[in-house]
Amino acid sequence: MMNNKISIVVKEGIEGLPECLAGWREVYVVFDRNVSEVVEDIVSHCREVKGSLEIVATEEEKRIETVMGIVRWLMDKGASRKALVLAVGGGITTDMAGFAACIYKRGVAYANVPTTLLAQVDAAIGGKTGVNVDDYKNMVGVIRQPAFTYICADVLRTLPRRDFLSGAAELVKTFILEDGAPHYEDAVALLASLRDGTPLGAVMTELARLVEAAAGVKAGVVSRDEFETGERKKLNLGHTFAHALEHEARRTGTDLTHGEAVAVGMILAAELSERVGVAPEGLAERLRRDFVAAGLLVESPFPVSVLRDAMTKDKKAEGDIVHFVLMRGIGDVVFVDIDPLKI
What we know:
Layout: E1 2-3, E2 6-11, H1 17-21, E3 27-32, H2 36-45, E4 49-55, H3 64-77, E5 84-89, H4 91-103, E6 109-114, H5 117-123, E7 131-133, E8 136-140, E9 149-152, H6 161-177, H7 180-195, H8 204-224, H9 239-252, H10 258-275, H11 283-294, H12 304-312, E10 317-318, E11 321-329, E12 332-338
Parallel strand pairs: 2-9, 3-4, 3-5, 5-6
Antiparallel strand pairs: 1-2, 7-8, 10-11, 11-12
Helix pairs in contact: 3-4, 4-5, 5-6, 5-8, 6-7, 6-10, 7-8, 7-11, 9-10, 9-12, 10-11
């Protein structure tokens, strides 16, 4: 699919990637060490690959020092300005490899092969790159679109369940933003069936359909508002709370994934939506019921009072006001400015 500057290639397996790389003479692969088998397959089929670099893709390593390590590796390899950096892994990998490509020799091309559900429906689409600073997420980075994003559901077969559910939260979030009930209800039903014991292989076709639909929704939003001056901000649904949750989790050593934080953040956003009169009573309870059925986290490990300070330091804060994305209903969201001390 193609939305202005955004190119997304959706295939069943990795075998279609060589065609996407055919026009590039220099390809340098940066990959998460957990997907080495996927990279071996890519290297064996793509003669354009001139080297590959394994990185540790964790929130702790998502920092400028890691990005500079990628830059130095590109320098050592003699990568020219016509090179393509191919990021293979989850959102942390695509964020860091993309950022390195954007600053190397004032910018070379990059492309993404997301290998997690979260990256396929969210993190690897839209051109956001960057790293964390101290305990604050994605405080340094740039927005620059990849040459393409290559998505294949087949790589999700070996994804650990917790990582899969982390991505599932972003999948559900996308359908709360847009497309309304049909895709949202299908996603909840599929996730509930997996929780009840249905093997992933049995629902792969349906999962691929939902992933493609979610990727299309995000690509459409980004193509209309690439630099987040308006509509794109709605993609932050649940993230104001989520980033505060992640900040507090890092500070206290609490084990919490990004998707888990987003799931809880959406529940808190729904409750806030009802409290300020944006949403009808019962929306938060419906989401809570659906999320539990889908296997998503719904209870915050920290009280909201603890999260307030982090929310005031979030990128979406201006002075004493935080820009929240709240819900009128499934498929209908609105921007509301709130003083976090009044939550």
